[in-house]
Each structure stands twice: as C-alpha cells, then as structure tokens.
Amino acid sequence: MTHKHELKQENDYEWTIPKKGKMKVPGKLYGSKQIINEVSKDPKVLEQISNVATLPGIQKYSYAMPDAHRGYGFPIGGVAAFEPEQGIISVGGVGMDISCGVRALKIGLKEEQVKKNIEKIAQRLYQVIPAGLGSKGNIKLTMDEIDEVLEKGAEWAMKEGYAVKDDLRYIEERGRMKEADASKVSEKAKKRQLKKLGTLGAGNHYLEIQKVDKVYEEDSAKAFGLEEDDIMIMLHCGSRALGHQVATDYLKIMPKVAKEHKIDIPTKQLASAPINSEEGQNYWKAMNAATNIAMANRQVLVGLIRQAFSQVLPEANVETIYEVSHNTCKREQHDVNGEKRELYVHRKGATRSFGPGTKILPKKYREVGQPTIIGGTMGTASYLLRGTKQSHQKSFASTCHGAGRKMSRTQAEKRFQGERIVKDLKEKSNIIIKAHSMSGTASEAPGAYKDVDEVTRSVEKAGISKRVIRAVPMVTVKG
C-alpha cells in the first residue's frame, strides 16, 4: 500500500481506515485517543491493517485491538475473519509462536497466608520451571510420543499425570484440537520439540504470582472464584520450537501457493493459501497440532507449579480458572449481514472473548461470558476480563491480549538495564523477579509497553469486553 493511511474517528474508542485502493473492507482500530496516538507513531501498523484488508474473502473489517503494534504481515493485535469458499488462511495471521497463550490459576489463599513464604515459593518455582532461551525440560519424548502429543494436546498431559479433570474443562476446546494431524508437521519441527515440552521459554513468556487488588464486577469475579486479596497465578507461554518451525515451514510454501492461485498480496509476509486448497488444509491441520503442543506444554507446567506449591505451601489448592490462546485461527460461526456463516477467524496477539450465552463455554461462565486473560508487565498489573454480547458483532468476539509493546526489544535493551529493573522493582514495589537472562529482562521492561490500564479501559469503553478483576505482581519468573 502506498497511499497515506487516513484515520477517521467514529467515536471516543472506535477509529476506521477508509477503504481505498485494493482494500476489500475498511480497517478498524479500538482504543482511546491516547492509545491511538501511540499506535500511530509507527505508520507500519496502519499499513499492515490496510494490507490485511486486501486479502481475499475477508469479512467486515481488518481489526486491530488497543495493544496493536508492528508484526510480521499482520499487526500484532490484529483480527481478521475469512469465509471458506473464497477466503485464505495465513501464517502471518496466526504468528510464529502458534497458540501462545495464558493460563490463569487460583490457589485458594489470601496475600496474608502467602507472603511469609513468598521468597521460598519464588525460589522453588525458579528451580522447577525450565525457562530461558533453548531451555530443555525433564520430559524426553520419542517421535511416536510427540505424534501423540500433537494429536491429543492436554489430554496427553492428563494421561501422564500432569493434570486433574477440571483443568481440561477450563481450557479452550477442552485442551484438544481434534482436527490436528501430526503427519502435516515436519520431522524437523518434531525433533526440535523432543526435549522442549514443559518449558517456559524466553522473550515475553513468564510465570507470575499475583494479588487481586481490585474487583470491578463482583458477580463475574464470584463466577471466576476470586475476590480482593486472593492470590492467583498467570502462566504465559506457547508451542515453543515446534510452533516456530511449523510457521517457518509453511512460510516457505505459501508464496508459491499464493502465486499459483493468483492471490494478489501487497507483501510477501502476507503470503497465504486458499482455505480449501490442499496446502491451506495442510497448514490448518499442522497449526492445530502445534496448538495441541502449546496446550500440553502449559498443562505440564501447571503440574510443575502444583509440585512446587505442594513443597512450600501444601495448603494451596491450585485450580484452573481458564486458559486462552492469542495466536490462533479458529473456525467459528458468526453473524455477517444478518446471516450465520462459518468463518476462519485469525487472531494474532488477540484473544477470543465470547459473550454471555455462548453454548460452548463451561457452564459456570455461560451467564457472565468467557474469562479473557490480559497480561500486563512485571511492574504493573494484569487483568481478567469477560466477553460481551456486543463483541460478537463488533470484533468477531475478540479483544486485546496484553499491554502491547511501544518499543522494540532491541530498543528496550539499549534503554534499560535488567539488573536495575530487578533492583528497582524489589525496592519500590516489593516485586520479586527471578530471571534467567538480564538482557531478556531489559527487553521486557515495564517502560517498553503501553499502559495496560488504558488498554483494558479502552476495550471496555468500546464494548468488546468488561473488566472483572485487576491483579498486581508479587513474583515474576522469566526466561
């Protein structure tokens, strides 16, 4: 796209990029004026939103959430839905870390019951959770076993003793993508994962002990099993090396496929395949398999978290609140111009956020809406939101996934010092940081991110999700 990307303000929290050139639909951004000003500082973000709007079969809008920032092809924070007959499936619309996501847990204890042992539990979690770039876990899989994980997801982790029954009930798709096909995943991808299951990884992945410091909706918080001063845990990680390799493998295939099918793409980063083509379906099945790996990975880590707490705080009862992914493509039913249609909804750095009454939600969340987990930074806060009925019409039932970067990792590493961050957070906020890499800590500095309070306020004011609780960090374990 070469034209200037005009932004038109629809109301205080909705902005559109008018349809121009080859755009098939307009772009739409959600956010306050403060957020939009930050997003617009990088013109590449608006360009990427507009580029996505040119893809065949796209429906309604090319969306961006308030945490939007530059990505590969799609912006991170981007949402786009495609109808299957003429539409495409895009590696860039899912991302390199397939099914990167967050598990929220509660432990049935208050801050007062935990704080005297907080140093001990922080150290124990640091010891039992393999983390960092290239980290390896204690699980050593064979090629046959990796195929089983690829096709069974968190069900495999339960069979191996890393889960309790209620864990699976509160994971999207109950922890298993049934259309996964291990045969569509390369041998190289499988080999890269043989020693990676049950590892946290690096980058923005973390394990955090948090305290609920604010309740916005008491009824919804009650449904989530939380109240003020409760202790909860957030676990953020994805499909590790396998997901990255699946994306890499299909990124090599897609340009040729796009050319063969005469898909007009504005940049090679948006190379895509028709959904119903052989290559499109192969990627769909491989992507679902990588999603299973991610769900199994998080479930193994939950088992390790339970182990750590049993050794230091045996009175803790670690239960799953919910788990959501935010790098996905899901096949869903949505209303388009008054007609229910099956769509392939790409959410890249965006979270599914079904509203009240959605039948596939667990029974105890059906009245209030889906819990949506929004990670902040190690020095600020995180949120649990819930879906709204309006979100189905306004964003294909999607919302933000975190605070969203406002500077790159390279910029952050030049500006911040990991050791200083760890020291300052301990002295000023009594937050314990257990990090495997100081450069990694610098790249994830709180100052490298947007204001998560403003991001979540924006999605609430836009009507696409509602704030339920805010939680502040006590301990963060990072790669």
Features:
35% helix; single chain; tRNA-splicing ligase RtcB; 479 residues; alpha+beta
Give an account of the 3D structure:
The chain has 479 residues and is of the alpha+beta class. Helix content is 35%, strand content 25%. It has 16 helices and 19 strands. The protein has helices spanning 33-40, 43-52, 111-114, 118-128, 143-152, 154-159, 165-169, 187-193, 218-224, 240-260, 278-312, 390-395, 409-415, 418-429, 438-443, 452-462, and strands spanning 8-11, 14-17, 27-30, 62-69, 76-82, 88-90, 101-110, 206-215, 230-237, 272-274, 319-325, 327-336, 339-348, 351-352, 371-374, 382-387, 398-399, 432-435, 465-478. Helix 8 runs antiparallel to helix 10 (240-260). The longest helix is centred in the middle third of the chain and has 35 residues, at 278-312. 60% of the residues are buried.
Termini gap = 38 Å
Provide the number of structural domains: 1
Number of strands: 19
Integer average pLDDT: 96
Largest sheet: 8 strands, mixed
Measured as a percent range, the helix fraction is 25-40%
What is the CATH topology descriptor? Answer: tRNA-splicing ligase RtcB
Draw up the topology in text:
Elements: E1 8-11, E2 14-17, E3 27-30, H1 33-40, H2 43-52, E4 62-69, E5 76-82, E6 88-90, E7 101-110, H3 111-114, H4 118-128, H5 143-152, H6 154-159, H7 165-169, H8 187-193, E8 206-215, H9 218-224, E9 230-237, H10 240-260, E10 272-274, H11 278-312, E11 319-325, E12 327-336, E13 339-348, E14 351-352, E15 371-374, E16 382-387, H12 390-395, E17 398-399, H13 409-415, H14 418-429, E18 432-435, H15 438-443, H16 452-462, E19 465-478
Parallel strand pairs: 3-4, 18-19
Antiparallel strand pairs: 1-2, 2-3, 4-5, 5-13, 6-10, 7-9, 7-11, 8-9, 8-19, 12-13, 14-17, 15-16, 16-19
